[in-house]
Write a structure and sequence with these properties.
single chain; alpha/beta; Rossmann fold; N-(1-d-carboxylethyl)-l-norvaline Dehydrogenase, domain 2; 6-stranded parallel beta sheet; 3-stranded mixed beta sheet; 12 helices; binds nicotinamide-adenine-dinucleotide
């Protein structure tokens, strides 16, 4: 297929390179010259105008920072510029309402479109092992699936338009809550004189087991290797977790959903990021318990 890829940052750069490796022709567009140069070295054709990049393509993939940018890129440069009938895939993490609006506008103009946010960070984007949670019609999902399979290890149809974003923000709200709960329990065990390694051994095989404890332990030297063992460098940045928690809180308000733990997690991450820790892995929140 001939695919336009818009937004070649930390995530999009590797994803576009994997589309090239899978045999697709990729037209790359980004506002950053450095990102375009990297895309060129990975085998993409580069463009300085998004509308030209989508000319004559079979599909468009976007991986952009937020909903306002996604909306403007689709409104100004994709809808009405890409050939009618092209499949459109927005892989950015954005608010549910903008995802739904953008898909409705694309469908009204004759396109098939999905929201397809990802689980997995930069390493998974580079390695082609992302998990995609996809919202959209059956037809749009079927057309998007082969494109997504070239960039990921799992492609799951979550439901109608916006369902991918809903799955993503609910998952990450749960992740924040379990990370904070794990941090709190580990530090309390330590303060009560229990060796954290023993706590890990016991709780990871008991009813307290959960992903941050078992696979991403926030204390250095305990459990499997994780960002804690690298001074909280790499991994999933606190600033990105905060972005997802803010989206979750907005969505909860819109849906009138009760999220007492989610809102507490959001405010703890708000304080932690505000204290200059936005670049650290989100497991570094355990430092606030020291
Ligand atoms: P990034 O800032 O590294 O990349 C975004 C890219 O979009 C940049 O290269 C920027 O120049 C480009 N861009 C911005 N406005 C543009 C426009 N109008 N037209 C064309 N290009 C434009 O961000 P990222 O880390 O790659 O994240 C991208 C998306 O993926 C975000 O929605 C993020 O929440 C989501 N995400 C990121 C991670 C991660 O670990 N980094 C994990 C999961 C999901």
């Amino acid at each position: 297929m001939k695919i336009a890829f818009i937004g070649l940052g930390n995530m999009g750069g590797g994803m576009a390179a994997n589309l090239v490796k899978a045999g697709h022709d990729v037209n790359a567009f980004d506002l950053s010259e450095d990102a375009l140069a990297a895309a060129k070295s990975n085998g993409c054709a580069t463009f300085t105008d998004a509308g030209e990049a989508v000319h004559g393509v079979d599909g468009v993939v976007t991986m952009l920072p937020n909903g306002a940018i996604v909306k403007s890129v689709y409104t100004d440069s994709v809808i009405g510029r890409a050939p009618e009938g092209a499949v459109l895939l927005d892989c950015s993490t954005i608010d549910v309402a903008t995802a739904r609006e953008t898909i409705a506008a694309a469908e009204a103009a004759g396109y098939a479109m999905v929201d397809a946010p990802v689980s997995g960070g930069i390493a998974a984007a580079n390695g082609g092992t992302l998990t995609f949670m996809v919202g959209g019609s059956e037809t749009a999902f079927d057309r998007a699936k082969p494109v997504l399979e070239a960039m990921g290890k799992a492609v799951i149809h979550a439901g109608d338009a916006g369902a991918g974003q809903t799955a993503k923000i609910c998952n990450n709200m749960l992740l924040a809550i379990t990370m904070i709960g794990t941090s709190e329990a580990m530090k309390m065990a330590e303060k009560l004189g229990l060796d954290p390694q023993k706590f890990y051994e016991i709780s990871s095989q008991s009813t307290g087991y959960n992903w941050p404890l078992n696979d991403y332990t926030p204390l250095p030297g305990v459990g499997k290797e994780s960002p804690a063992d690298r001074d909280y460098q790499g991994g999933f940045a606190t600033a990105l977790m905060l972005k997802d928690l803010r989206l979750a809180m907005d969505a909860a308000e819109t849906a009138d959903a009760a999220v007492p733990l989610g809102s507490r997690a959001a405010s703890l991450y708000e304080d932690f990021a505000g204290a200059g820790n936005g670049g650290l892995d989100f497991s570094a929140i355990i430092k606030t318990y020291r």
